[in-house]
Specification:
Strand order of the largest sheet: 1-2-3
Shape: elongated
Order of helices and strands: EHHEEHH
Number of domains: 2
Distance between the termini: 22 Å
Helix content: 55-70%
Radius of gyration: 20 Å
Largest sheet: 3 strands, mixed
Length: 89
């Protein structure tokens, strides 16, 4: 992934937009990463994958509830939080 600083991105915005159609472009400010510019198709794909993952995790919770692996809604929420936390690591 190409990285540029915020002032270059501002000055060369049109060029950065064109590059972002081919690959994500990282943008740093004061030497720290602050954003990534990507194409609409990549963004939509990420949103789709995120929604699919969330549906899958919710289904796991429902399956646990139906299989009596949890006893109440709070247990489902706690279990899902653990799964989400572990998946993020």
């Amino acid at each position: 992934m190409e990285i540029c600083n915020a002032s270059d991105a501002k000055r060369e915005f049109g060029e950065i937009l064109l590059k972002a159609q081919k690959e994500p472009i990282g943008i740093n400010k004061n030497g720290k990463p602050v954003a990534v510019m990507l194409s609409v198709s990549e963004y939509e794909e990420l949103q789709f994958l995120k929604a699919q993952w969330l549906k899958s995790e919710l289904q796991k919770g429902l399956d646990d509830l139906q299989a009596d692996r949890v006893k109440n809604g709070q247990d489902v929420i706690s279990l899902q939080r653990k799964r989400i936390t572990n998946a993020a690591v």
